[in-house]
Amino acid sequence: MTTTATIGQTPRIDRYPAYVYDLPALRDHMAQIRQHLKGIEIYYAVKANPDVELLRVLHDYVDGFEVSSGGELSHVQAHFPDKPLALSGPGKTDAELSSPGVTRLHVESIGELQRLIDSGRSADILLRVNLALPVEGASLTMGGGATPFGMDPDTVNEAMTLLSAQDAVRVHGIHAHLASGLDAPHMLKLAAEILAYARSHGFSEINLGGGMAVSYADPGKRFDWQMYGEGLRELRQSGEVLRIEPGRSITVYCGEYVVQVIDVKRVHGESFAIVTGGTHHIRTPATKNHDQPVVITGEDEDEPVTLVGQLCTPKDTLSRRVHINVKPGDVVRFAMAGAYAWNISHHDFLMHPHPEFHYIR
Ligand SMILES: *Cc1c(COP(=O)(O)O)cnc(C)c1O
Fold this sequence. Notes:
The protein is built from 10 helices and 18 strands. The protein is an alpha/beta fold. The site of pyridoxal-5'-phosphate (PLP) has 16 residues, from helix 9.
């Protein structure tokens, strides 16, 4: 992986494909979120994008980082040793459970809690609850029914009994990451229900999770952080700590995946442009089965073209029937590539060269 640093200007790209991260744009976006969420703790969910340059920008605005593995934990600790850290994940090993420097350990099951207690070490935990709440409009659900995440309310009661018989493991409250892809009104509705549950059990530290909606079909349609912040402050009662851990909605907009057209062809009446790179670098359109938004700079073209990558599979489709005029050598920019893009992709499938990484500073 090669990196270039270009201070104060858009980087010059010599080789395609490339990722370009806009750090000032990320800073502005995060500063706004921080402003709207006064009084609410924000942990950034590192699994959305663990790029160190991005974490360095976010570090100044977030209260902590949420990590989902021992790998993410040591990555973040190596660069930001003093930042509070929450460790999540449904399958923590004994080694992960005993990692030093974890501010909050999110416990996912009775088995995990028992292993933690048996280890004899002290820990500060939140219990991850899976409440049977309807989550309308979500793109992915991690709770609200039978999933491998967290504990249902009966199991939480069992966990409290286990915890009451010892004092090395201290429970501070609950963690509930139930769905992703929700807009602010739906998120607030869910928050009200999670808080009602928490209060009925005497919990005053509540992590409401991430999953704030982003729209790949309409990149301009943004999550309403102002409404969400105001709503959470209204919901919060004195003495309560409310925390959120968004990932995608924070970093998705600051990244672009930039490619060059290799070939343009018509097959059975449809136009295709084959570009350098593909879903082995940006798996997002394949996993979400969407069209990755394209930055259109020239005139709109009547005749649509489907943009595909270099892989020998029909799944390597980046964006279908885009109204742009492209010829070999042209550069195409895919937007919204700052989260769940490079780091969730199968980079070595077909052994093409990895992209270069550029940063606008
Ligand atoms: C993935 C994840 C998040 C972040 O979700 P986004 O949709 O990226 O905001 C937060 N919390 C937990 C427990 C997660 O697994």
